[in-house]
Amino acid sequence: MSIVFVVSGPSGVGKSTLLRRVLDAEPELRFSVSHTTRPKRPGEKDGVDYHFVDRERFAALVTEGGFLEHAEYQGNLYGTSQSEVEKAVRAGYDLILEVEVQGAKQLQRSLPDAVRIFIEPPSMDALEARLRERKTETDRVMQWRLERAREEMEYAVRCNHRIVNESVDKAVDEFLRIIRNARRKAS
């Protein structure tokens, strides 16, 4: 039986970095590539980081019932493809879904048995420093992200596990322990 891990946390907390390392360490684990209407960032690849689509195509997928969850975040749309999840589960792979908190709340209803993991910053100051290091947001957007992060942190108590990403190595080790424990319980 496949296990679905729903990973959420504030923007800039290091979810993508952690997930790359976890996926490299666990060959039987797959990553569900979400759809988005946001533009590609430098280095991102269509079909690997996201399925980049326009708003018209995204709306059509919503109408067709193609998403397990979908949400708008900072003016862009994001969604988890139902067919991608079903394909991985049918193939017997455990699956990671990386979603915004709004999407995680929807998935809590549609995938109640999923293991929910919340990635937290060591502090709000550390989160702000990470976001500033990106150099991709204006000050106005930065303040919005930080306000949103404070709100999103409240969701952490609804998750099965919380990982404070103070050290990437320690956070990866903790994440891998969660995966291996979930597999032991499921077998």
Summarize this structure briefly.
The chain is of the alpha/beta class and 187 residues long.
Q: How are the elements arranged and paired?
A:
Blueprint: E1 4-8, H1 15-25, E2 29-31, E3 35-36, E4 51-52, H2 55-63, E5 67-73, E6 76-81, H3 82-90, E7 94-98, H4 101-110, E8 115-120, H5 124-134, H6 139-153, E9 161-164, H7 168-186
Parallel strand pairs: 1-7, 1-8, 2-7, 3-4, 8-9
Antiparallel strand pairs: 3-6, 5-6
Structure description:
It is a single chain. This protein is an alpha/beta fold and 187 residues long. The chain has a single domain, classed as P-loop containing nucleotide triphosphate hydrolases (Rossmann fold, 3-Layer(aba) Sandwich), CATH 3.40.50. Helix content is 45%, strand content 21%. It has 7 helices and 9 strands; from the N terminus they run E-H-E-E-E-H-E-E-H-E-H-E-H-H-E-H. The strands form 2 sheets. It has a 5-stranded parallel sheet with strand order 2-7-1-8-9, with helices on both faces. It has a 4-stranded mixed sheet with strand order 4-3-6-5. Strand 5 and strand 6 form a beta hairpin. Helix 1 packs across helix 7 and helix 5 runs antiparallel to helix 6. The radius of gyration is 16 Å and the shape is globular. The model has no long low-confidence stretch (mean pLDDT 93).
Beta-strand content estimate: 15-25%
> Any idea how many domains?
1
Give helix and strand order, one letter per element, not per position.
Answer: EHEEEHEEHEHEHHEH
Mean pLDDT, nearest integer?
93
CATH class: Alpha Beta
User: Helical proportion?
Assistant: 40-55%
Q: Indicate the structural class.
A: alpha/beta
- Annotation, overall tally of beta strands: 9
Choose one word for the global shape: globular
Radius of gyration: 16 Å
CATH superfamily: P-loop containing nucleotide triphosphate hydrolases
In the CATH hierarchy, the third-tier topology is known as Rossmann fold
Q: How many helices in DSSP terms?
A: 7
In the CATH hierarchy, what is the architecture at level 2?
Answer: 3-Layer(aba) Sandwich
Low-confidence stretches: none
Kindly report how far apart the N and C termini lie: 8 Å
